[in-house]
Amino acid sequence: MAALAASSVELHGDPPLYLTASTLSRAGLPHLFTTRNFPGIRLWRDPLGPFEPGAVELIGERGMDGGPIAFLAQVHGADVAVAETGGLVGRADVVVTDRPGLPLAIFTADCVPVVVYDPVARRLAMAHAGWRGTALGAARAAALALVQRGGRAADLMAAIGPSIGPCCYEVDAPVIERLSAGFPDAWESWLTPTAPGKWMLDLWRANCDQLGAAGLDPARVESAGLCTSCRPDLFYSYRRGRGEGRLVAVAAIPSAPRPAC
What is the average pLDDT score of the chain? Predict the structure, then answer.
């Protein structure tokens, strides 16, 4: 199995408000993955919207000030919604856009946020992948959505944000059945047996492998390697503290292409 890009995430703020991935930063993609210290995040279904003014201001400071943020009613699947404007853009777990400056958002609290960027064709996709979305191939769907719109898999780069890690994510037979049905040739490499009928699941590896299967160079796929359950100082975790809060990943195609070197 090819090695992933070395992770070198950068924390911003004291205490840290968000982190960024070096792979995406080098490509000039404005983005962030929030910590529990990031202010102003509400539920997506809140009548006032999920982003308070303070959150919008901080997101704008990262170069994502192109107007209202596009987000999904996430349903733990792998359907793709196309974002043309901000606001709620559909019931899905993958969102794609070719609109420069339009921020996309994915909400998590243990599930995997995936950002896939095409710096050549200037398109962006993001996915929300818990175990159900992983079994259905949400990360792969995000990459293929960019290829189907004219991109080349070799040009794509991706980052896996903080989520529950293989250290903490114990699953049982119903999860294994779904994973083995969806990925019969790969699922066993994502699991470590711990007890009869129990396994530890590596969602990071599973989603990175799916991106590789979609044609991405593993050296252009970076995983933050930060477990939301292990790090209560930085992250919310649904398993550790159900209902305590949500994290969000936000990214936007830069308004101007990055100059050629």
Answer: 94
